[in-house]
Amino acid sequence: MSPSSSNNMTSSSSSSGDLAAGGSQLAPSGRQYMMSSSFLEIQTLEILMAVIVFVAIHSLRQRKRQGLPVWPLVGMLPSLIAGLQRNMYEWISDVLCAQNGTFTFEGPWFTNLKCIVTSDPRNLEHLLKTKFHNFPKGDYFRDTVQDLLGNGIFNADDQTWQRQRKTASIEFHSAKFRQLTTESLVELVHARLLPVLKQAADQCVDIDLQDVLLRLTFDNVCMIAFGVDPGCLSPGLPEIPFAKAFEDATQATLLRFITPTLIWKAMRYAELGFEKTLKSSIKRVDEFAEQVIRTRKKELENQNMNNSRSDLLTVFMGLKDEQSGEPFSDKFLRDICVNFILAGRDTSSVALSWFFWLLDQNQTVEDRILEEMHTIIGQRNYETTAGPLIFRAEEVKKMDYLQAALSEALRLYPSVPVDHKEVVEDDVFPDGTKLRKGTKIIYAIYAMGRMEAIWGKDCREYKPERWLREGRFMSESAYKFTAFNGGPRLCLGKDFAYYQMKFAAASILYRYRVNVVQNHPVLPKLALTMYMKHGLKVKLCSRGGIN
Ligand code: HEM
């Protein structure tokens, strides 16, 4: 109803009141005209209301599919928007639990927001392993993330992907790379992380642990991917423009997935809203990557450093494009670097943040981690007691309970909460869902951790014990626990990530109790990886007398 029609109705009702009182100033013909025109307006309104109610009831009754109302024109979009207001991942989990693990989302008819969402391990195995070639990332995904990720490993299929995977895999499994990662971690944790935490503890100030951990993994991945140290984790926690630009870019890229393609493309063209942010943040990301590539090229020209460096960038610079026989272009090197930063920075840090938050609520789990840690240290020879305690690689590997506690955190809060594939040829999922060529598939990793059918009645509880058999850590099928993906695209950094998380967590827990600040709001943020929306504000309590 328009404001003017509302005013008319008010004035007409008051004039009818005046009429009843016999006090009207209006001539009879004017009065009749007023009455008939208000009558017409009311009738039109009533008809309009009746049509709206009819359409609503009809669509709710007739077209409620998979528990979700399908509205004319806009499909299931209203339900998605309502889900976004609350917590999108919980909304998806609720729908999937009610629909036994698979449902079809239908967006507005004029958009391409239609996809099949699944959390069924049988479908996951089919998707990620058995019929791997029938489910690439696909054109829709590539088009959506192209501006940020280019042709890097996350965004590539077929030979472009295979080439990067093979090279990176050899590198990740080389002794030199393992040595680089272990050494860089000792340096980062002991010379940077612990002093920053000590300062916060000594001064009794709250600290955003997620921010600190993101700085740690950012510096770490830059060291192993680029061979440069950006110094993000240092006293005073300086703002690093590249890190900020990277975060803005990943967030804006995710928004493209929930915006009709035509709309975000128009926004990109007109440089509006999140597209404007994306453009400027990608520019800053590119500037950083280009500078690193230029510097490395100069270094390699001036000195023969090929043998002394073992970072990924140097390895890829030494290779040639199989098709052209030429060295890789700077643009391709930039894509490789940006993809590895995304892979290595935003995953372990957010996983650790959820882990510390869960630990704060589960004292018995923390006690068991400490007990395990002290038993392992107790097996040391006593000639090495001087100086700060630095966990050794073989000790970290023995920490089975800690590994179980981290896996349990990842089960409930996977760093990559949803992932995407596209159907190449018509197919059928093992659960009977028909898949048409070109259909988009979302596999809901977050929801999988909340399925009773997969984990049992206690699926929402934090129980590291479910990962242990006779005290030893036992990994689960990648199609049931998909936090690291599965099949040929299994996370390449999985072993490194566990080592990194265990080393950092043990080094912190050995020295501090991490208390989450009371009433600090903890919610997932809508981004490509599962950041905590408001960070993780904590107070650190020194365990006393430990260096
Ligand atoms: C808790 C930590 C981590 C988690 C939960 C995790 C999870 C994942 C997931 C879900 C994927 C599949 C993504 C996709 O295909 O869309 C993936 C791929 C990948 N991860 Fe990780 N990751 C972690 C840490 C790391 C680290 C530290 C690195 C490297 C420094 C890394 C390197 C990679 C790479 C290179 C891929 C691409 C594999 C491919 O497509 O062939 N990850 N990871």
UniProtKB/TrEMBL annotation:
Biased composition (Low complexity): 1-16
KW Isomerase (keyword) present: no
Family matches, as InterPro entries: Cyt_P450 (IPR001128), Cyt_P450_CS (IPR017972), Cyt_P450_E_grp-I (IPR002401), Cyt_P450_sf (IPR036396)
Subcellular location field: Membrane
Originating organism: Actinidia chinensis var. chinensis (Chinese soft-hair kiwi)
GO molecular function, a single term: iron ion binding
GO cellular component: membrane
Tree of life domain: Eukaryota
Region Disordered: start-end pairs: 1-23
Gene3D superfamilies: Cytochrome P450
Keywords for this protein: Heme, Iron, Membrane, Metal-binding, Monooxygenase, Oxidoreductase, Transmembrane, Transmembrane helix
Biological processes, Gene Ontology terms: lipid metabolic process
Membrane-traversing stretches: 42-60, 67-84
Cofactor(s) listed in the protein's UniProt record: heme
Pfam families: p450 (PF00067)
Membrane topology designation: Single-pass membrane protein
Signal sequence extent: none
Family: Belongs to the cytochrome P450 family.
Name this polypeptide is given: Cytochrome P450 86B1 like
Residue sites binding heme per the record: C491
